[in-house]
Each structure stands twice: as C-alpha cells, then as structure tokens.
Amino acid sequence: MRINSKRFAAGAALALVATLGLAACGSDDDGGSDGGGGGGDKTTVTFLPKNLGNPYFETSDAGGKKAVEEFGGTFAEVGPDTAGPDAQVSYIDTAAAQGVNALIVSANDPTALCDSLNAARDAGTKVVTFDSDTDPECRDLFINQATAEGIAKVQVDMIAEQIGDAGEIAILSAAANATNQNAWIDLIEEDLAANHPNIKLVDTVYGDDDDQTSFDKTAALLADHPNLKGIVSPTTVGISAAARYLSTSASKGKVALTGLGTPDQMRDYVKDGTVTEFALWNPEELGYLSAYAGKALADGDITGAEGDTFEAGDLGEFTVGADSTVLLGDPFRFNAENIDEFHF
Hints:
This protein has two domains: 149 residues, Response regulator (Rossmann fold, 3-Layer(aba) Sandwich); 133 residues, 3-Layer(aba) Sandwich (Rossmann fold), CATH 3.40.50. By secondary structure, it is of the alpha/beta class. Helix 7 crosses helix 8. 39% of the residues lie in helices and 19% in strands. Strands 2-1-3-4-5-13 form a six-stranded parallel β-sheet, with helices on both faces.
C-alpha cells in the first residue's frame, strides 16, 4: 500500500466523519437517477457490502460516499443485515430496476450472484466488485485491496514471528463461501507447507462475520486444541471477537492472535497485550477508489480492458490489469508503535 501515515490518518478520519452521515437510503438528492454522468447527468452509485453494521464496510462505504460527493454523483448504500451466499440478490435486482449507473459490490459468494449481476449489466448498470470478487465474467471490474499472495504472506509472517515459527495454529475465518477468505486461506496453507514446516495448521473454523459466533468459535478452538499457540483471523469481525475472548481468558499472552483488523477495533487489545500485531489496507481508500472506477465505467472512459487508465481523485491514476482488476496496494502492519497514528 502506498501509505503516507499522515494522509492515511487524515483520510481515515474523514471517512469516520462521513460514516456518521451514512444512510441506507443514500443521498437526499435524487435528481440524477438516469444518465451515465456525462452531459450534466449525475452518476448514480450504489454500494452493496456483504452486510450492514460491519465497521469495515462502514468505513469503505464512507470512502465511496466521499468520492461520489467529490464528483457530484448520487450515493446510496444498501445491503442485508447478515452475510449469506444469496442475501445480496434482491438488492442487485432492485438497483438494476432503478437504473443505477454503477453498482459496487463486495460479494458473499463467487457464483451465487452471477445471474443477477449479469442481468443488471444487461440493463446498463456497470458492476464493480471490491474486497471480495465474483467470477470475472459476472462483473466489469474488480478493485483488489491487495494481492491475495501479499495478504496471505503478511499473515503467515506475523504469526510465525509471534510463535517462534513453531507450534499449532488455527484459522478463524468469515463465511465458508467468501471468495477472498478462501483464496487467502489456500495461500496461507501453501506458504506454511513450503516455508514453515514446524507450524501445524490444526483447524479452520467459520464465524460468518458475526461477532458472537466468532467469539464462540474462538472459545471452541481453545477448548478443542489445548496446545494451540496462535490464531489467524483474516476478517475484521473475527479478529476483534477473538481478541475480546482472549483478553479476559487464561490464554491471554499465551495464544497469539493476528490477522486483518481495523485500528479502532484493535487498539485496546494491542495496548493491553492481547494482540502484538495485525494488518490491513485502508478501507476508506478502497471504497474511494471503487467509486471512481464505477464512474469511469459509467462515463465510458474505460471498459475494464487491461491497460485502461483512469483518475481516482486524490489517489491519482490507476491502470487496469489482467482479468479486469485494479490493485489498491499492499497490506500495512499495525502495532503498539504506530496504531495511535490511525483512526478508522
């Protein structure tokens, strides 16, 4: 990730301010429901996260709202309360019926949404996936927060450092069908097998991006594996729930926890010694970039072909890579030395 800490912190703070005004029904200005953003028409952009009420998506969608306000479009955020393979379908269908110009989706399943997404595309809506992709034939562009290889490697590196590169570990994931989670887990397993022969992955469990479920799964992992030395949770809901459990358990300081989280979720757990280090990208920038990509598609400035370039406001110029993918950057490690620089 191109991470200037002052700009990162300032941008994330703006994202939190924007979040306070984030409404599920979107902007009060409904004057731009048609047209692709050219010729004076406003570009309508709808964000569809995996589920509402998730702090990670509140921040990413606030970044999208900020971008849409910058380019004078109309913003909306919709979504299910609980993540599930087909929970997003009705929202996709509604967006298409409303003639939304750009639909920005973090997919709960790589294939379950395809029929609805392609129907929306046939109706003229440009589909951008972010955070979690669908099959490439079901969208116009994917905004990748970081390469899957980079995300997997940083998590393996952190857990290996924290447990002395030896011992039993487990993974606490989100939904069993989550595209990004499964890709990262596959690569974590490959990295462990190739480079860390003394680390044994003994279990992978799923908290479904639900706080209480993830909390309970953490308790079960510790009960089922008394020799566990570490937990990797590649989900912001999972890592915070696991930290909450560990912080008041006899395993605090004995079982390492790392993965992907946000500074505001994890700050207290880093400071009290429950967690040493975790990683993430800037979700505010991810949403911001996704919104600008949706506008570029809706305006006809790009088609999603490899080599296309577009401007993304304060983030500058981006180039479309293979499989119609745009890369935001690399993960960043948060620890006691730097966590107070960030607020999101």
